[in-house]
């Protein structure tokens, strides 16, 4: 469970890894000029081109993650009570990594039983679960 995270965070991680790979490749390629002189320019050119392609791939992934994030359903996590975004039917909380779902068939606990459980635990502030609706006010 240590390596599991929310889908949006996974996309952002891949974007960051591509950025670091591209920048590292460009720096190492430019370092080829220092180590091999005039013949290192070929390595520098190859490193810069592949690094640039990697950086453009990172840009595309960050753009895609941003577009997915704008249309994601935002719910309140029942474990940490923070608002998180869900992609698809099941996803993980961005903060505590709890598995969340919007599909009642896949859920192992319902919203009513969660409220009953919190009431039994003596939680003074019972937070009503956010239930997304199918209709969007801007449509």
Task: Give the SSE map.
Blueprint: H1 7-36, H2 40-71, E1 73-76, E2 83-86, E3 90-92, E4 99-101, H3 111-121
Antiparallel strand pairs: 1-2, 3-4
Helix pairs in contact: 1-2
Short descriptors:
139 residues; mainly alpha; two-stranded antiparallel ribbon; two-stranded antiparallel sheet; 53% helix; 10% strand; rod-shaped
Structure overview:
The chain is mainly alpha-helical and 139 residues long. The protein has helices at 7-36, 40-71, 111-121; strands at 73-76, 83-86, 90-92, 99-101. The chain is rod-shaped and about 75 Å long. The relative contact order is 0.13.
Shape assignment: rod-shaped
Please indicate the percent range of residues in DSSP E strands (runs of 2 or more): 5-15%
Average per-residue pLDDT, rounded, comes to 81
Broad structural category: mainly alpha
Distance between the termini: 38 Å
What pattern of helices and strands is seen along the backbone? Answer: HHEEEEH
> How are the strands of the biggest sheet laid out side by side?
1-2
Question: How many H/I helices?
Answer: 3
Radius of gyration, in Å, reads 23 Å
Work out the number of β strands.
4
The major pleated sheet works out as:
2 strands, antiparallel
Spans with pLDDT under 50 lasting ≥5 residues? Answer: none
Q: Helical percent range?
A: 40-55%
């Amino acid at each position: 469970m240590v390596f599991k995270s929310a889908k949006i965070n996974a996309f952002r991680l891949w974007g960051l890894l591509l950025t670091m790979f591209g920048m590292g490749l460009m720096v190492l390629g430019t370092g080829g000029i220092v180590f091999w002189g005039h013949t290192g320019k070929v390595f520098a050119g190859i490193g810069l081109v592949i690094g640039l392609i990697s950086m453009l791939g990172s840009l595309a992934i960050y753009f895609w993650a941003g577009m997915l994030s704008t249309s994601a359903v935002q719910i309140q996590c029942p474990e940490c009570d923070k608002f998180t975004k869900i992609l698809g039917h099941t996803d993980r909380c961005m903060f505590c990594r709890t598995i969340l779902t919007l599909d009642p068939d896949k859920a192992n606990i319902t919203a009513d039983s969660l409220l009953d459980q919190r009431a039994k635990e003596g939680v003074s502030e019972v937070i009503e679960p956010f239930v997304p609706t199918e209709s969007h006010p801007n449509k």
